[in-house]
Amino acid sequence: MHKHELLIPPEVFSDKNARELARIWAAHGKQYVSFISKIWDDPFVWGMFLVDLANHAANMYELEDGRNRYDVLLRIKQGFEAEWDNPTDIARGRIVNADKGI
Question: Where are the domains of the chain?
Answer without folding.
Answer: 10-85
